[in-house]
Amino acid sequence: MMLRHIYSALFISVIALILLPAHAATIVDIDINNKGQRYNMVAQMQIDARADIVLKLMKDYSRLTNINPYLLESRILSKSGEETRVSMITKTCFMLICYKMKHVQDFVQIDNDTIQSQFITEYSDFKHGWTRWKASSNSDNGMPVTLLTIEVEVEPDFFIMPVIGPRILKDKLIEVTEVTVKNLEAKAQLIEKQAGE
After folding, report:
1. Quick one: pLDDT at residue 86?
2. Fewer CB atoms inside 10 A, N or C side of the chain?
3. Beta-strand pair 126-140/97-111
4. Residue-range domains of the chain with CATH
5. Strands (E), the chain
6. Is the pLDDT of residue 78 over 80?
């Protein structure tokens, strides 16, 4: 029974880590729901940087560890046409016990501002999963900003506590998303600054 609780906490951390990933990054909205063991999440964030740079950073699959500190590995396995297969290992800790989980995803840019991925379940710790990242150009007081929308649907390969799982998941997701988005914004702003020099 204790092992099930540990796996539940582990999953809650990992869902947050799947996302792709400075001072003004703002979480606009996060909505999480579940049907049985399948979890859906939609998050919107405003990033004070140009959308083309944000998208470029998100597509740098072998360097995703630079924006998501919870990723231990992000390694390109293969490329076929527009599709890139990426192996990722996340590390999450619960009550001083840390775990590593693997997820392999096929990424493809489906239009000018959107990247989508499909989990390869036979190589992942999930029965089902996909993500979609959309980096839309916007402006705030005349300055370019990005509205980043992330959608995730996953089904873990282990038990999640039905009563408190979604609440813990949301809290962990907010924590990890804030760190990742701030890192993404800081790197995008650095690129903008270097380009302007």
Report:
1. 97
2. C
3. unpaired
4. 2-196 (3.30.530.20)
5. 26-35, 38-47, 71-80, 83-94, 97-111, 114-119, 126-140, 143-156
6. yes
- The predicted-structure confidence for 15-43, as pLDDT tens digits, reads as follows 555 554 434 678 788 888 878 778 888 98
Contacts of 94 (CB under 8 A, 6+ apart): 6, 9, 10, 13
Model pTM?
A: 0.80
Task: Compute the CA torsion angle 173, 60, 127, 29 (nearest 10 deg).
Answer: 30
The predicted pLDDT at position 56 comes to: 93
Distance (Å, rounded) from C-alpha 4 to C-alpha 197?
53
- Say how far apart CA 70 and CA 177 lie, in whole Å: 11
Q: Which two tokens mark 187?
A: 């790197």
**Which sign, positive or negative, has the C-alpha torsion 169, 175, 176, 177?**
positive
Of 22-26, 72-76, 135-139, 143-147, least confident by mean pLDDT is 22-26
| The one-letter amino acid at 77 | L
Strands 126-140 and 38-47: unpaired
pLDDT at residue 20 in the model: 47
Token representation of residue 90: 């996340």
Closest to 152 in 3D by CA, of 23, 42, 72, 33 = 42
Q: What are the CA-CA distances from residue 116 to residues 4, 82, 120, 132, 157 (Å)?
A: 31, 11, 13, 4, 22
Helix, strand or coil for residue 6? Answer: helix
